[in-house]
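input
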Amino acid sequence: MTFAYQENNTFFAQVSTGLEEPAATELNALGAENVHVGFRGVYFEGTVDVVCRVNYQARLVTRVLAPLLVFTCHSPKYLYKRAREIPWSDLFDVSDTFAIYANVSNSRIRHSGYAALCLKDAVVDCFRDECGERPNVDTDNPDVCFNLHIQGDKATISLDVSGQSLHRRGYRTLGVEAPMQETLAAAIIQFSGWDGARPLYDPMCGSGTLLAEAYMKYCQVPAGYLSQAKGFCFLPEFDPVAWEAMKAQADALIRPMPPGLIAGSDIDAKAIEASRQNISRLPGGDAVEVVRKDYCAMASLKDVVIVCNPPYGIRLKQDNLHAFYKEFGDFLKQRCTGSEAYIYFGERPMLKALGLKPSHKIPMVNGGLDGCLARYELY
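output
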């Protein structure tokens, strides 16, 4: 059987809402071709080598899917029947654990859990018929993952060639309440246009995600440097020698950071501990200076690029969020002249509370939060 992705070398990169266009640009830079934006993601063409490169180096992509079978699906029985046509043993062994993640929309199959169950039954029945035994399901830490997407009557069964969400970089071993996703932090750094010409500072660094992503970008540390996401190993065309060569080539571009280029602070001692430990997991990450300090105690933050994700709602245990944001806005106006600030608001109403007029606003989703990134020029 020829898999769907093999017919035209087309793959699908899932990205967060609002990041489709910059993700498409990133995919082009990594060697993808015929890139075009779709619903909640980006379609692209490329070889398996390109897919491996995207998984290792893309900073904005959440996961990559390789379509195996695309068909019209009008019932659970037909889903099961078509899924039985896939030669599952060509993709993984009976000794490997697997998981299936499904989502359905406007379909006659109304429950995603039931759709996943039908596909699971087809997989294990195929193995039983061929091998006399079946692989086990493991939803916590599977060896291989499959994705089932049904939109209307169109069903797509895909191999998850990432294996896990690519936002899990691997450096964040300690966290704070409601941390920012790594892909969103990478997008904020990209939208800021920061290129290392001026220092970058985060005065509310939390567990250090923005600092880590800025460091990885400047020092050219691949996004997947510490990640265990390697679902592409299950592609029949996967070449382990080519993979190691590509990874070595990318790692050879890692460069050191000039002293003082990236730094941050936070009032919370636990946040500082988490930030230091997380960033130190990156090669040379100890060069990022992180100190415990209330931003109010700073004399100034002039001529720098400020990036931050201020506390909000579920993160800030204060009675008056507006007062907090007004105080922070006064700090930016009075002590940060000559700087640019890129502030992520998890709650958009707080934009007005800051008391500054943004020069630009970009809607950005962080988990379940419909947030916004605002740019401020501080004259």
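quick obs: The first strand starts at residue 10 and ends at 14.
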